[in-house]
Amino acid sequence: MDAARIAGYFKRKSILITGSTGFLGKILVEKILRVQPDASKIYLLVRGADASSAQQRVQEEVINTELFGLLMEKHGNGFQQFIQEKVVAVAGDIIYENLGLETPVLKALAEEMDVIVNIAATTNFYERYDVSLDVNVMGVKHLCQFAKQCPRLKMFMQVSTAYVCGDVRSREVLILEKPIESGESLHEGRYLDIDAELRLVKEAKKELQKSPVDEAACKTERQAMKELGLQRARHFGWPNTYVFTKAMGEMMLGQLRGAMPVVIVRPSIITSVRADPLPGWMQGVRTIDTLIIGYAKQNLSCFLGDLSVVVDVIPGDMVVNAMMAAVAAHSEEKGQAVVPVYHATSSLRNPATYKVLYESGRRHFYKNPRVGENGEVVPTKEMRFFPTIARLRLYLMLTFKLPLEILHLVNLLLCGHFSRLYNDLNRKYKFVMHLLDVYGPFAFFNGCFDDINMERLRQAMAMKTPEDHMFNFDPKAINWDDYFTRIHIPGVLKYLHK
């Protein structure tokens, strides 16, 4: 396995990619086009009213991004012509049967397809349950049904998340690269029936929709669906709706795959591009980036987390390199007894702690101090970290809730003079406490992701030429201090901190 074999695999292949407008999807599209210009076609399934609007979305949200700068330089004036020949926007949606496509379009697409890569997902931890089920579970079902109509199909790759393992705050545990069994629950004695969950949502929505349709009713339904998702996730042992429905998506794939060649890739927290095509490039705020942005703005005085805890992060380009290598390695493996699962993670081979991230951030801002509106240097302050949710709750209550209650009493004495201020501050306080509830489990995640399958794939890689290193996905190659200080933090400030 070397660069020539991986790049060569995609020659004259037709590839369908979902989620191409997202962070990882863009990196994958760019990489295939750059290393294998002789790929037949890359079909990008995107939401759009028609082919024209889908094409416009792909052009604006994918092709015109800075990530494609290297490819633009390579092709010069012929860049747009190259893109038109290779990239096809398809107006559809995985939440619908037949992907929302007309029968002739669906059949023509099926005849062409060699590889399907499903990256599309709703990643909101507190998403509506119905929306999460539609995208993360039913989307997998509809893609599987389509894949079975593809006579030339050589690979179906499902991009999941390493955190389908659930909440492991209370114990240190090695999380294996093994498929999730159908009906599996993280709480003993409970059977997870996907069809029953779909019926539950349908009935809940039917009850909620009995009320007259107005803004208040829509808001009530939205909130009820969010709460239902969180409730069902925790009933079965998952900390939030996102990882719960991604786990169900894996179950759905296991049920429907038949003899299809299938691979599941589970990245941990995906961070900015490390090497190529554009170091530091990223899209979408991850949990750790909240810390960096808050520190940059100097409006975050405290943070939830133990600095000694390992934060499992992996650069986006390394995830894509691993995905492409896995596709080439397992192509046409029909009738697999067990679905190959790959953890694109770092906690086992090269762990990085929150302390490394914090120290890197502090060093960066000391060397590159922020300047205020008046031109004066903004001093870099120390942050306070709380090792337990209980301690942070107590701190927030004393620092914010107690003054709020005093304001409430003053407001009553003054006949509601401060009602608007009190309501606004109280709403913000409740929102912060809600975030603690939803994101807290990840701040103290003690699991370590085994990556023996990924290590075998790495060992099969020949790293003899500069081209081979273009497909490096070994976390041991990362110096975390250098990466955070020189690449990731500047990337966050450039692309996310507006």
Short description:
One of its GO terms (biological process) is lipid metabolic process. Helices cover 50% and strands 11% of the residues. It is an alpha/beta fold and 498 residues long.
Could you explain how this protein is built, in words?
The chain is an alpha/beta fold. The protein has helices spanning 3-9, 23-35, 51-63, 69-75, 79-86, 103-112, 129-147, 194-208, 215-236, 241-256, 287-297, 316-330, 354-367, 389-413, 419-443, 452-459, 466-469, 480-495, and strands at 14-18, 41-46, 87-91, 115-118, 155-159, 173-175, 262-267, 269-271, 302-304, 313-315, 341-344, 384-386, 447-449. The strands form 4 sheets. A 7-stranded parallel β-sheet has the order 3-2-1-4-5-7-11, sandwiched between helices. A two-stranded parallel sheet has the order 6-13. Helix 2 links the parallel strand 1 (14-18) and strand 2 (41-46). It starts with a helix and ends with a helix. The model has no long low-confidence stretch (mean pLDDT 91).
